[in-house]
Amino acid sequence: MRRRDALGLLASTPLAPRALARLRQDATSRGDWPQFRGDPRLTGVAASEPPPLTMLWSSDLGDSIDSSAAIADGALFVGSQAGRLVALDLETGARRWAYATGSEIAESSPCVATGLVFIGDAKGVVHAVRARDGKPAWSFKTGSEIKASPVVTEGKLVIGSYDHHVYALEAATGALAWKLETDGQIQATASVDGGLAHVAGCDALLRAIRVRDGHEVFHVSSGGYTGASAALDGERAVYGTFENEVLCIELRTRRVQWRYKPPERQFPFYSSAALADGKAVVGGRDRLVHALDLTTGQPQWTFATRARVDSSPAVAGGRVFIGSGDGRLYAVELKGGKLVEEFDAGSPLTASPAVAAGRLVIGSTDGQLFCFGAKDPARASD
Q: Going by CATH, does the domain composed of 3-39+67-308 fall within 1.10.8.60?
């Protein structure tokens, strides 16, 4: 039975939410990148081989792309400030469908699960559309704009809003399961592990919220306004703040394990970290990409770009891929930070790369969506 057929069969059974959740957790092992940062723990690590920065195709989406792409089942999904969620064929770039949200899509990135694509917009609406044809399934209105990306787990969609609330919606219907009020705007995406959603907020707190019922299990002070999302490795949560720090929270003791604050430059960290090979890799507004020891927070290397780095890194096969405000996409070695190659997109890259099936996809602020990878010799000879 094909995977797509299997998903359809599971969706028609009473065990569908649980079974589909297991399929979703295994998505990156199959080569998909179905949500922001690739998986619910927001690790930024791809199962795919590292693609070369050879452009295979590009597509003009009409306005700035700050949303990061999701890749699933041979399709990619991305939002733009033109107010459209678009699906394209991963191999060719041909457009499959476009869904008008009625408002611009800022930084919210799509999440693909249970045959639906979910995204938030600047008017505070969460949209769910069918992945196969872009037809609307449901929508839900929050009280203010949404910049966070949705995460689907345990049959629920978890997302934060600028209205100071974290929401959990039934993924199948959009019905409100619960909402939790915080003391500030929610810009970061929730990272989920062990039944807990970890949400860093503009109220300078990292909250751990039980997905099942919305109960806040604990919170930890970040010491500063946070726009970055926390990445989880099972034992730790790592994220940056606007107080120029990267924090590592030890989840068992619920205490700060380490803080990294570059001594020479004082700039915020808006990029979300990738966790791989014992390192936390994160971009800074000091124009640098920083690699830190995950246990101690000690710097391992830095890589200099020509402008601030709000893009969040993706790691594949020992390489780090990251965009910069200088308009370049960089590939550097995870081990030592040495430049492997770069691509000049011609416009700032604030979106984050998505890597799956030997392809890398990223959008630019002039509305261009780029796909990179190895050229197929069979196609080239046609």
A: no
